[in-house]
Amino acid sequence: MTRSKKQQPLRKCVVTQEMVPKQQLIRVVRNKEGEVFVDDTGKKNGRGAYLKKDIKVIEQAKAQQVLNRHLKAKVDESIYEELTAKVKADPSS
């Protein structure tokens, strides 16, 4: 009997609406206190939104204020700067 490979969890990018493996996405979270932050672990409590690890996707999210709508909160400019820095630093993207 052969073992089947464990399926990778898929999540939807809020900008492109594509279903993508979770490892290819960055999660942004709004917690109960209303704080918005980048979730490196992917496991923090709160309302989350996923973005592809792509500079163009992050720029599009910023221009269209997609995260503001999905997280139902004001997303600070520093969040977009942090997302861009993470994508540039990630060798897999």
UniProtKB/TrEMBL annotation:
It comes from the Bacteria. Pfam families: YlxR. InterPro entries: YlxR, YlxR-like_sf, YlxR_dom. Gene3D superfamilies: YlxR-like. Residues 11-84 form the YlxR domain. PANTHER family: BLL0784 PROTEIN, YLXR DOMAIN-CONTAINING PROTEIN. This is YlxR domain-containing protein. The lineage of its organism: Bacteria, Bacillati, Bacillota, Bacilli, Bacillales.
